[in-house]
Structure formats: C-alpha cells, structure tokens
Amino acid sequence: HYFIQSNLRMRNEVRILLLGDADVGKTSLILSLVSEEFPQHVPLRAEEITIPADVTPEGVPTHIVDYSAREYFGDDHLTREMQRAHVFCLVYGIDDERSLESAHSYWLPKIREINEVDNLARPVILVGNKDDMLLELDESPLESVVPLMNEYPEIETCVECSARRLKNISEMFYYAQKAVLHPTAPLYSPELGRLKPACAEALRRVFRICDDDNDGFLSDHELNEFQQRCFNAPLQQSNLMEVKNIVKRFCDCGIVDNKMSEMGFLFLHTIFIQRGRHETTWTVLRKFGYTDQLEVSDSYLRPYLHVDEGCSVELTEEGIEYLRGLFYKYDSDGDGLLSPSELASLFSVCPNIPWGDFSASVMTSEMGWLTQEGYMALWTLNVFLYPEYTLEYLGYLGYTSDARGNQLSAVHVTPRRNDDFKRQLSSRDVLQCFVFGPEGCGKSCFINRLIKKGEIEISPETERHICINRIKYQAQQEKYLILQEVREADLEEVLARGREMCDLAIVLYDSARADSFEKAVEIQMQIDVPSVFIGSKSDKTPVKPEYTYTPEQYSQMAGLPPPLLFSAVPEREAAQQKVFQTCVLFASYPFQQQSNTLPIVKIVTTSAALAMMGVAAFFLFKYVKNGR
C-alpha cells in the first residue's frame, strides 16, 4: 500500500452500539478495552464511553454504547439507540450456538428493519467472543458464520476475540470505526468479486479528470499529480514502478506503453479493497467530493459565495487559466473549435451539458461550433448570471485550488455598482448593458451584431435575448460586454433594479421613423443609471423626429453623451465595433447625468406646445447649464 492516507473525513464522530443476547460478553469487551484487563465484577451494562480523537487510529472521537438484555428499558428505547448508532457490533458467544442462531433469527432482521425505516445502510461487525473456548470445539466457528455473511451483506466483517485474554478487542472497535468512515458496501460486491457500478463510475470520473492530456491513459506525471492532489505527498519512483508492475501482471491492458489505462486504474482500486485498504479508495473519492452514498456532495459543489446587491461575479486569472486549459485538453484535433462530440467529452464528468443553444449568445464558427473566444465568453456569461450554477459545474469538472481547496478561487466578487457610479470609474472586467427601445427599433439586430451575426430566431419562451463578446477599447484594453434586450413586459421590473444590475442603459430609436425618438425619450426618463441614445438603421434615409428636440439637443440638455448612430448591415462591421467600443468606454467611466431632473415640465409635440417651446427651451437650457 503505497498511497499515503490524507486527513479527509466525512464524519466527525462515530457511535458504536453493541448488540446481542445476554451473557455473550458485550459489557466485558467494553470494560476490557478501557481498563486493559478482564473485569472481575461485570455490571449489567457499561455506561456510555467516549474515546477521544487523539487516541483512536482514525483520529475521530468514538462513542461506545452497551445494550443489556437484562437491564431492559423496552423496545422503544432499543429502537432509539439503534437509530442513533452509526455501526453495530453484533456479539455472539463462540461457545453458545443459541446466541449465533439468535443473531440470525432476531438481531440481523431487527437491524435490517431499522436500516430500511431510516433509509440508511448501517454496517454490522459480527463479533465472535470467547475464542479462548475454541480448544473445546470440534470445528472452526467460521464455517457457521460464512453463510450468515453471505445472506446479510450488511455484515462488513467478522472478528473473533476474547475479553478474557484481551485478544482482538482494539481491532474489533477499529473495524467498527473503519466500517463507518470507510464502508466497503458502497464500493465492492464480494459475491461478484468486483467494484459496484456506482463506485466504478465515480472512479472513471476521477480518471478522466486526472487524464490531463486526454489520451485515455495516466502517465507517470499524471499519476504523481493524482497522488499529490489526493494524498498531499509525491509518489516515489520505486513505489510507482511496483504499483504498475502489479497492475501489469494481473490486469491485461492495465498498462499500455508504460501508462496506466482506465481498466488498470479500476483494477488497482479493486486490489486495495480486496486487501482491506478501502480507506485508500475512499480518500480518493472524498477528495473529488463523493459522499458515502457515492453522490457528489452539495457542500463540495456549492461552496458558500456571498454576493451583495449591486455586485457581480467574474472569473479570476486562476479560473480563466483552468478553463482555457480544459479547452485545449478537449480540442482533440487542435482546430481551435469544440465540436459537439468534443464538447460532450468535456462535460462527460458532469450530469449533463449545462449550455443549451449557445449560438445566439456567443461567437461560433459557421458550423455553430464553439471558438475559444466564444467558449471563454460563455463561461464568463454563466458565472456573471448564474455564479452558484457555475461553481457547481466547476466542481463536477474537478477544479481545485491548493490555496482554498474549492472552486471559490476561480471567481471573485466585484464592488457595488453604486460605488462605481460615485467614483465615475468601473473596476469591472465584465460590463452589462441593458438595451431599451420602442418596438421595431432594431434591438435584436443591434445585439446580434455584437457577435457578428444577423437574424437569429429567438424562441418566445426564451428567458432573455443576451449576447456577450470581448471588446477592445482604448489603449488596447479589453473588457467583456454583455448586451441584454429589455422587453416591454419586463420593463417595469428591470427599471426597478437598474442600479443593481446595469452598468449602462442603451436606449435605441429608429432614426428612419419620425415617432421613434419620442418613445425612446419616454423610456429614458424612467432610467436612473448612465445611459446613451443610439439611432439604429442609420443606413436608411434619416427622418426628422416628431419631437421638440433633436437627439443631439436632448442628450446635451440631459447631460448625456452625444447620441451614436448604428447600422446592422454586415458590411459596416468596423463602424459597429466602434459603437460597441464607445459603449464599453461609457460603462467603464460612468458619468453623472441630469436626465432625472430634466423632465420637470412634460414636453409635448402638439401645436399648442410649440408656442411655449422657446421659453421652455431657454429655461431648461439655463437650468442644465447652471446645474453642470
């Protein structure tokens, strides 16, 4: 056994209950363990004993509870004690056939009944006491125990001991403790002589995670990385060679070209379990998040991440490097794309692929395959929108950090947006812009051009139309820009939470329609975050707005930057990129706008209002000028 055991534990205590008929020596076993001598006077029942963690082999405090058939408190009391226990030591007398028959006819069915009620698989250590009486028996008692162990898989092991001779008493309690901390039942089927399906599948996941180059084998370097990750110690070259020789000798195709195959990896753990070293396999499984039921635990998948209102979550450099490494690992043909099969391979260690139809949100190839840019943008978008969900999948993928031991080192929480607005400087690398505008102004086309696509069919059931891409702006700096369409049905809700979620409001209007800008102004008046007007469809003949002010005049009076013009025609890609760069710049340096103080007097477009337009314009302009 060459792998060094780690300190990882899934339980922080063990509770052992001794069961069995009267006079089989349950109390004597407990008292002999504590006093290290056979008691001359044995009470009806020993008091509960707690063995401190620092004197137990597994380093876990252990509570030992005695049951006395003579000191009877009723079935309810026995049931409660059995439900509190983690493991049962079922004691029978080697010199008393009736006690073994009682274990078969009463105690084991009782244990199974309690386990089924609680939906638990508490293990049983079958203890044959008084083996000092063996000389008086004609046959080995093990012959009568084997059928019992075959009938009841709950029995983890059988121990023969003697309270009088102090034989195997410490071992009995060690096996009981070990059966709780490192149970065999979920891992291995003794009847079939092989790993159980759930255990084999869990170990296959571990293998695929540790196969860094995705060639289907573990090289010496990868085995050492595995050893370091699970056991916090390197594997000596001589020990490594001996392990590989054992696998090569007994497992066909276990070692290929001096590398360990998946079959060899599973065989190695089978050998550990068969030789009673199943704590090695449990240490590996728990390092990768598995519970005793061989399910990846919630605590492993979802470490606590606190995100205040107005803050967002982004990937750290460590997280980016890890995810980029996964892309290279599964881009098996090196074409810079993840095909559907390569993407399925990447997420084969997860319950499913977490992304649906991503082609409407990020850059893809003409075939709809993920580019590296689109792949990283998709992770960035997911951690921004669904940080807990992203941490869960990072856990499934096997992300780890030496510093923190969980996925939290892959992300960080940004400051509040309100603080950025006050400083007029954003420290974020991911900026979210809501796209507002009247119906038919071209919001979808505007958003699609962020990922250089034309018309994209968006299902009415789709929660949101959203795109993300990395944009270079001043001095070759880069930030991710998220554009999210705000539908009329969602307008009220989004406006109520704008300052928590939005870095810049983009208000679109159709520059080829006379009534579009006035409707855009009505929307903009309700927005209390930095905003900018963008006139869409600028490739068409512009039409004078049916509004008191031109977009330039209104923006100046409202303290907004000058409106931008945009055309979704693919041939104008360079101009489109400049618009997106400008949006990133505006979001990176939030400006104090006066739009909320401007519309004190409601401006109308009827002929009656034109008479007072000059006066209103004078006072509004003076108001804005003085305010600035």
State the helicity in percent bands.
Answer: 40-55%
Supply Rg.
Answer: 35 Å
Poorly predicted ranges (pLDDT <50, ≥5 residues)? 1-9, 594-628
Number of helices: 24
Structural class assignment = alpha/beta
What does the largest sheet look like?
6 strands, mixed
* Beta-strand segment tally: 21
Q: Average pLDDT, to the nearest integer? A: 87
* Overall 3D form: elongated
Distance between the termini: 77 Å
The side-by-side strand order for the widest beta sheet comes to 2-3-1-4-5-6
Percentage of residues in strands: 5-15%
Descriptive labels:
alpha/beta; 6-stranded mixed β-sheet; 21 strands; 40% helix; elongated
Give a verbal description of the structure.
The protein is an alpha/beta fold and 628 residues long. It is built from 24 helices and 21 strands. A 6-stranded mixed beta sheet has the order 2-3-1-4-5-6, with helices on both faces. Helix 8 crosses helix 9 and helix 9 packs across helix 10 (278-287). The longest helix has 22 residues, at 97-118.
